[in-house]
C-alpha cells in the first residue's frame, strides 16, 4: 500500500487486523463506497460489522425472507449460504422440506413405535433437534448421498454443543448421555430383506454383508458408524505389544484401543506378573469379562503347553471374537469361550487361577435396565433392537460400569470355583477414585477385611505412562489431571487351605 493511504494507516482496509478507527469525517473512499451518511459523518460500524451486514443483504430480501436459489460468489456451496428447510404455515411443523423448496417426502414410516420424518444433508439442525427432543425419529431420505448424512449428523452434534464447557467427569457423562439420547433417533434407511443401505456413494470402509441389519427398514446412523469402525479394526486387526498375533473383533465387542498407551497400561502390569511365574502350576484358568480376549491369550502364551483357559463374558460378540481367534490360531482344544455372568457355577473341575479385569466405574444397580446400567433417568440412552443386536447396546455399557455388589459376587463365585491354594488375580484402576465415584478402599481391601477366605499373595501398583501424543479430548484440564494421577494395580489373592 502507498504510504499514508487508508490501508497502511490502520483504518478500515480489508487487510486490517483490528476494528476500524473512527474518524471525524468520511474519507473520499468511504464516500464512494457509501459508508458515510448524508451529513458526512463516518459509519460507526467496524469493518467486520459492515462485511456481515453486506453478506446478510446478499442472502435475504429486505423483508427478511430468503432469496430464491441462485449461484454464490467464489464458488461457495449453496447450502453454506442459504437457509434450508424452514417450515412455513403451509408445510406444517412436522414436515421437513427439501432445500429446493419442494415438499415431497417419502411415504410415512414408523420406527420403534415413533413416527419417522425425513431429512437430507441440508435440513435445519435447529428444527431437527427440536423434533428429536419431542420424541420423533428423523431418517435420511433414500437415494441421498451418504456424505450428506455424515454432514447432517455432524451439524446436529455440533449444534448440541456444550463440549468445550465440560470441566468434570460427571459433566462429560451427562453430555454423552444427552447426545446418545437425542442422536439415537437419527436413522438411515436400509432394505428390510437384505439390510443393504438405501443411500448412495457409501464411504469406506465397506461393512461386510453378514453384518447388515436385516429385518428392519432403518438402522440408527450412529450404529452404522459403529459397524464401519468395527470393519476398520477387523481389516487391520488389534495388535497389542504383549501378544504375538492380532485379534479380529466382531462388531459390538468391547476392546481397549491398542494405540492408546494409558488405556492399555494394565496389560503391561499383567505381563510383569506372568513373567514372575504367575502361571506356575496353573493347568486350568478362567478369564472373567474377557472382552476381545487379550488376557486369555496372555495366559496361554505364558502358561504350560497343556494349560486350558476358559474365557467368559456376558456379551455374545465377545464370546464370538474369542472363538474366532482360537480357531484361527488352532487353539480350540485349549481355549474355550462361553457366555456367563462372572464365574460360571457349573465348571467341571476346580480351577487353579481366575483372572478378572472388572469394569472401571461403580454405579447403582437397576434391574429394570440390566446389570451395569446407570440409574434410569430422562437422559438415559434409549434401548432398541439396534442397540442390543447391532451396536452391542447395554453389553458395551456393562463393560464400563459395575453394580455395587458385583465384586462381592465375584469373590463368592471365585472362592467356590478355586481349589485350595488357587489364586484370584484382579486388575484394577484408580480412575473411579480420581473422579469421585469411589473411596480410597479397593474391593480387594474390602474382601480381605470382610473375611479370611483369601490372603494377599502379590501386588503391583504402577503409574500409567503419559501419552506421547495428546489426542482429541485429552488436552482438557480435568482429563489431563486424571491421566497424570492414574495408576494400575495387579492384585493376586490366594485361597486359604
Proportion of beta-strand residues: 15-25%
Gyration radius over CA: 30 Å
Number of helices: 16
Q: What is the succession of H and E elements?
A: HHHEEHEHHEEHHEHEHEEEHHEHEHHEHE
User: What's the end-to-end separation, in Å?
Assistant: 91 Å
**What is the helix content?**
25-40%
Average predicted confidence as pLDDT: 76
The low-confidence runs, each spanning 5 or more residues with pLDDT under 50, are 1-22, 68-103, 364-392
- Helical/strand content category: alpha/beta
Shape call: globular
Report the strand count.
14
Neighbour order of strands in the largest sheet? 8-7-6-9-12-14-13
Secondary-structure blueprint:
Layout (H helix, E strand, L loop, with lengths): L27 H6 L13 H13 L18 H4 L27 E3 L2 E6 L5 H9 L3 E4 L5 H15 L8 H15 L2 E4 L28 E3 H16 L28 H14 L5 E5 L5 H9 L5 E6 L2 H14 L5 E5 L11 E6 L4 E3 L21 H6 L3 H5 L2 E3 L2 H12 E12 L1 H4 L8 H8 L3 E10 L13 H9 L1 E9 L2
Parallel strand pairs: 2-3, 3-4, 6-7, 6-9, 7-8, 9-12, 10-11
Antiparallel strand pairs: 1-2, 4-5, 12-14, 13-14
Helix pairs in contact: 4-5, 8-9
Amino acid at each position: 500500500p502507498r504510504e499514508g493511504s487508508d490501508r497502511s494507516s490502520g483504518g478500515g482496509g480489508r487487510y486490517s487486523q483490528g476494528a476500524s478507527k473512527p474518524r471525524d469525517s468520511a474519507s473520499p473512499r468511504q464516500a464512494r463506497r457509501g459508508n458515510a451518511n448524508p451529513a458526512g459523518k463516518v459509519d460507526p460500524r467496524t469493518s467486520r460489522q459492515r462485511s456481515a451486514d453486506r453478506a446478510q443483504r446478499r442472502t435475504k430480501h429486505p423483508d427478511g425472507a430468503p432469496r430464491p436459489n441462485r449461484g454464490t460468489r467464489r464458488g461457495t456451496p449453496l447450502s453454506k449460504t442459504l437457509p434450508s428447510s424452514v417450515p412455513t404455515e403451509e408445510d406444517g411443523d412436522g414436515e421437513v422440506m427439501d432445500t429446493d423448496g419442494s415438499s415431497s417426502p417419502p411415504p410415512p414410516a414408523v420406527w420403534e413405535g415413533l413416527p419417522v420424518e425425513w431429512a437430507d444433508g441440508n435440513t435445519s439442525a435447529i428444527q431437527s433437534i427440536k423434533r428429536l427432543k419431542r420424541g420423533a425419529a428423523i431418517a435420511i431420505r433414500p437415494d441421498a448421498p451418504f456424505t450428506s448424512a455424515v454432514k447432517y449428523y455432524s451439524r446436529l452434534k455440533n449444534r448440541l454443543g456444550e463440549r468445550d464447557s465440560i470441566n468434570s467427569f460427571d459433566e462429560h457423562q451427562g453430555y454423552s448421555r444427552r447426545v446418545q439420547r437425542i442422536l439415537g433417533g437419527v436413522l438411515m434407511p436400509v432394505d428390510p430383506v437384505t439390510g443393504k443401505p438405501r443411500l448412495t456413494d457409501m464411504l469406506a470402509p465397506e461393512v461386510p454383508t453378514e453384518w447388515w441389519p436385516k429385518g428392519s427398514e432403518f438402522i440408527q446412523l450412529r450404529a452404522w458408524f459403529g459397524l464401519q469402525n468395527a470393519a476398520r479394526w477387523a481389516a487391520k486387526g488389534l495388535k497389542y505389544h504383549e501378544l504375538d498375533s492380532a485379534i479380529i473383533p466382531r462388531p459390538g465387542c468391547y476392546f481397549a484401543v491398542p494405540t492408546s498407551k494409558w488405556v492399555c497400561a494394565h496389560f503391561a502390569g499383567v505381563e510383569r506378573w506372568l513373567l514372575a511365574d504367575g502361571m506356575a502350576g496353573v493347568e486350568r484358568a478362567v478369564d472373567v469379562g474377557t472382552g476381545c480376549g487379550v488376557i486369555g491369550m496372555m495366559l496361554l502364551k505364558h502358561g504350560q503347553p497343556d494349560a486350558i483357559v476358559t474365557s467368559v463374558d456376558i456379551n455374545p460378540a465377545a464370546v464370538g471374537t474369542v472363538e474366532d481367534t482360537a480357531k484361527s490360531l488352532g487353539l480350540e482344544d485349549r481355549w474355550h469361550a462361553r457366555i456367563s455372568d462372572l464365574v460360571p457355577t457349573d465348571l467341571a473341575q476346580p480351577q487353579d487361577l481366575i483372572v478378572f479385569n472388572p469394569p472401571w466405574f461403580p454405579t447403582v444397580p437397576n434391574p429394570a435396565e440390566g446389570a451395569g446400567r446407570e440409574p434410569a433417568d430422562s437422559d438415559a440412552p434409549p434401548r432398541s433392537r439396534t442397540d442390543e443386536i447391532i451396536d452391542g447396546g447395554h453389553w458395551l455399557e456393562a463393560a464400563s460400569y459395575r453394580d455395587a455388589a458385583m465384586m462381592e459376587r465375584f469373590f463368592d463365585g471365585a472362592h467356590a470355583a478355586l481349589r485350595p491354594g488357587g489364586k484370584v488375580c484382579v486388575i484394577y484402576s484408580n480412575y473411579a477414585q480420581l473422579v469421585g465415584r469411589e473411596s480410597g478402599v479397593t474391593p480387594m481391601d474390602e474382601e480381605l477385611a470382610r473375611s479370611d477366605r483369601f490372603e494377599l499373595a502379590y501386588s503391583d501398583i504402577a503409574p500409567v505412562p503419559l501419552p506421547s501424543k495428546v489426542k482429541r479430548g485429552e488436552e482438557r484440564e480435568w482429563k489431563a489431571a486424571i491421566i497424570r494421577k492414574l495408576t494400575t494395580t495387579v492384585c493376586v489373592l490366594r485361597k486359604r487351605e
